Amino acid sequence: MPVEPKVKEPPERERSVDDAASARHNGKLTPSERNQRRAQAKVAGQVVQTAGAGRRDRLFPYALIAPASVMELLIHIIPMALGVYIAFLGLNQFTIGNWLQAPFVGLENFVTGLDPDGPIGSQFYAALLRTVVYTLISVGAAWALGMFAAVLLTSKVKGRGFLRTLFLTPYALPQYVGAIAWAFMFNQRDGVINRILVQDLGILDEGPFWLLGGNAFWVTVVVTVWQFWPFAFLMLLAALQNIPDDVYEAAALDGASLWKQFTTITLPMIRQANVVMLLILSLWIFNQFNIPYVLFGPASPPEATLISPLIYEQSFNYWNFGVGGAMSVLLLVALVIASAFYIKLVMPKGKALHD
Amino acid sequence: MIETRGFKILRAVGLTFLTAIVVLPLYVILVTSVKPLEDVRGVFSWLPSRITLQPYMDIWTTVPLAHYFVNSLIVVVTATIFSVVLAVLGAYALSRFPFKGARTFSMMVLSTQMFPGILFLLPLFLIFTQIQRTVGIQLNGSYLGLILTYMTFSLPFAIWMLSGFFASIPKDLEEAAMIDGTGRMGALIRVVLPVARPGIIAVSVYCFITAWGEVLFASVMTNADTRTLAIGLRAYASQTDVYWNQLMAASVVVSLPVLIGFMLVQRHLVTGLSAGAVK
């Protein structure tokens, strides 16, 4: 099924609206009566809104958000507060069973986990920096591929419906399936990548180890880009379809080159979609755990350890739960700062989420 | 874009390249899944020496795949339903009422969506341990515990996307219904929900897909009885002999439900993602 938001939206929405309306009315009111009432209501404005309102209506939105708020409290707020607390506990395999009695060790975990000169702390900063680099490269590449594909498939090319669906498959595939396939493909002796490089193309004499050492970082990047570029494509395609054709036609008449059209029309007109998409993508990739875990198992090669897998490794491989907690706190601080920027960009002018 | 000759050439080359990088892993998965075991030892061969469906039959006995499948279904479906129901209510409130605390609520939703699972994994693990010690309800390794942890990522996302959908539905509809004598809740259930149905289905499928591919919580919060596919599939590779053909056949089988679901709702998914993101 091709992605066709452009043609689809108005008729479908209207149809379902009408269906809902007729199902609801069951002939209780004729359309004209309804319109009349609606018009009266519009005139009366505020009066209708507040008539019969009072306390119950004022409390209604709170009743609606109550279940979600309770859940947020249970699964996010309390765990986060507890996460900060356990960063100050001496929590290891001996004390974890009865962690409420675990000794309070103050800043010890922070010294062990975050001391830039210590053996564990230096890993932390290296992993944090590596994760930033990994995020920038992967997001950049995913954006470039997604943008390229979206531009190409906005034009009227044969088979574009099929290609749009095909390009989305890496994103729809379970992440671990994609990562398993790539782990198989990057096998040192037997994988298809080395088969292509050594036998089919003859570029290399001997197939290198991909899942060890420095290569492992690049494998992570490749798998990440493969899995996430379709998301960029999906979002940008929707944005591009809102640009009317005649803008390009006018630009072409004025003799603007394709590149010029892209930079002066396409990019500015999809700016908002780009900003939001890049932010979402950055977060998903920065927080990535699934891909390295499936590629390398519970301990990534040191040259490719990202921040989420490092915290996991400290906590669940070495049972240094307190140190893992301390690392989490620092990560949390970094993300809170990032999210403040994010919220400022997504929710301008002091408004609520949507208006 | 105006289709000059240069653009057409660029397009042909570009689309070929993109198709190749998408198809290569898919081809490797499919072709390996129909290879006999002797073919998957040694250097990768582009074509199988003979095509066999044996891996598709063996996957069920080498590893208790059906059991993992059922586990995944139970956890993922329940987490999706709970998330979407709570999110419908919350998102409706956000998209319709200017109430005090709306901004705080939406900021909470937006920001928790940004935090990685690793931040919640250990605290939730400890809370679950404590509940088990004091109340006796087993949460670590149980369906319930896993369902709760899966809601850490599906709930905020569902709220966020659904409020985008709801915001794009005209308010007149409910106002008309309320003039006809329906209450606020009646208007939501009988007017807004039917109109928003494509969006709600898209969000549900999206939550389903994300949870289906989740590895982190599953790796810590499951035991032999509740293991999900994400972790169960590792068993094909942890044997002394790696059954790559079976692993790939199993990959095909576990991917099909989400691929089909995705294809069915992808049109609404585009609208939903961009509405949730941009509006």
Automatic annotation (TrEMBL), chain A:
It is a multi-pass membrane protein. Residues 128-342 form the ABC transmembrane type-1 domain. The chain crosses the membrane at residues 62-88, 132-153, 165-185, 216-240, 275-296, 316-343. Residues 1-22 have a biased composition (Basic and acidic residues). Belongs to the binding-protein-dependent transport system permease family. It is found in: Cell membrane. It comes from the Bacteria. Residues 1-39 are annotated as: Disordered. GO terms for biological process: transmembrane transport. One of its GO terms (cellular component) is plasma membrane. This is Multiple sugar transport system permease protein.
Automatic annotation (TrEMBL), chain B:
It is a multi-pass membrane protein. CDD domains: TM_PBP2. Its main location: membrane. One of its GO terms (biological process) is transmembrane transport. Residues 69-265 form the ABC transmembrane type-1 domain. Keywords: Cell membrane, Membrane, Sugar transport, Transmembrane, Transmembrane helix, Transport. GO terms for cellular component: plasma membrane. It is found in: Cell membrane. Pfam families: BPD_transp_1 (PF00528). The chain crosses the membrane at residues 12-30, 68-95, 107-131, 143-166, 187-212, 243-265. Belongs to the binding-protein-dependent transport system permease family. This is Multiple sugar transport system permease protein.
